[in-house]
Design a protein that fits this description.
By secondary structure, the protein is of the alpha/beta class. The chain folds into three domains: 37 residues; 159 residues, HAD superfamily/HAD-like (Rossmann fold), CATH 3.40.50.1000; 81 residues. Helices cover 47% and strands 19% of the residues. The strands form two sheets. The protein has an eight-stranded mixed β-sheet with strand order 5-4-3-2-1-10-11-12, with helices on both faces. Strands 6-7-9-8 form a four-stranded antiparallel β-sheet. The longest helix has 30 residues. The N terminus is likely disordered. Bound molecules: magnesium ion (MG). The site of magnesium ion (MG) has 6 residues, from loops. The site of magnesium ion has 6 residues, from loops.
């Protein structure tokens, strides 16, 4: 009890006692707030960005705008996990990141729209459980496709100049001559997929491949969230092309962002779910979208209190 209570008269003691209670209540409130701060994390826990045309642009200098690099660095410093969610394979992605000479590295990468790798000690380590299950599912679905492949390839080659090849991720990969050709082939092969359980046609601009319908940028992002105990309500997703559509869904992310260069189907999907379509292209658009999200959180009293925004 404070010293003045012991040395003052009854009225002063009563007044001091009231003050003490007020101090005690304030201490209790401060303690409760500290507990709440500890219990509640920064409102954003995962940021998932597509790579080409969204985070990185080959023909710009620098390929990743400094403003976006700084924003992601500041989010990572707050404990946010950054995921690059791309159609590239791992070596192609690492080479492009190395060439960009960034100060940041993604905590996770999703490659070929489906396999997951986690950064550990400057390396990207296979998430074996998920990737093994993913490979096995693809082997099974591709068995159903094999006998039809010659017919499908013949249909395309008789109508279009296109590069068709097999790689370690798909028995059918395509590079169309232009997006008009890619549209027609897309429609034809989408129809074919309807007759084969779990088969999907995944397209990014003039590039495309067959894949398993259950493994895509959305399901891979959900798996990373599951491992980190992070739900869609704490996830941001940004993308620009058709292969980004599976992750540009409120099922997987609360905040959806598309840059100006996104294809119409992506812009429409993002707008329909009250996401943000930037007037700025590529990485500038993603940085703009992230700033809009951060401003909206700063304007929210609960979010700004717990996150220090
Ligand atoms: Mg892209």
């Amino acid at each position: 009890m404070p010293a003045q209570v012991r040395t003052s008269g009854a009225r002063t003691a009563e007044s001091a006692s009231t003050e003490w209670l007020k101090d005690e209540n304030a201490r209790t409130q401060r303690s409760a707030l500290c507990c709440m701060r500890a219990a509640m994390k920064f409102p954003i826990q995962i940021v998932s960005t597509d790579f080409d045309g969204t985070f990185h642009t080959d023909f710009e200098d620098p390929p990743v705008p400094r403003v976006l690099e700084d924003l992601i660095a500041s989010l990572q410093a707050k404990g946010v996990t950054w995921v690059i969610n791309t159609g590239r394979d791992l070596s192609s992605l690492i080479v492009a990141l190395g060439r960009a000479q960034l100060s940041i590295w993604p905590d996770y990468v999703v490659i070929v729209e489906r396999e997951i790798y986690r950064r550990e000690d400057s390396q990207y380590v296979d998430l074996e459980t998920w990737n093994t299950k993913c490979k096995s599912a693809h082997e099974k679905v591709f068995v159903q496709l094999r006998e039809d492949l010659p017919r499908l390839v013949e249909w395309i080659r008789s109508r279009f100049q296109a590069t068709i090849y097999e790689d370690s991720y798909s028995p059918f990969c395509l590079i169309a001559q232009n997006n008009g050709h890619a549209d027609v082939i897309h429609e034809y092969l989408n129809d074919y997929c309807r007759g084969i359980p779990n088969l999907a046609y995944v397209r990014n601009d003039v590039y495309a491949r067959f894949s398993h319908a259950a493994y895509n940028k959305g399901s891979a992002l959900a798996e990373i969230g599951r491992r980190l105990c992070v739900g869609p309500d704490q996830i941001v997703a940004a993308g620009d092309h058709l292969n980004d559509l599976p992750m540009l869904s409120l099922d997987y992310a609360r905040w959806l962002i598309a840059p100006r260069n996104a294809v119409d189907a992506v812009k429409l999907t993002v707008r329909r779910q009250c996401g943000y379509v930037s007037d700025l292209p590529h990485g500038y658009g993603v940085a703009d979208g992230l700033e809009v999200v951060l401003k909206s959180l700063a304007a929210d009293p609960v979010s700004s209190e717990v996150s220090g925004l």
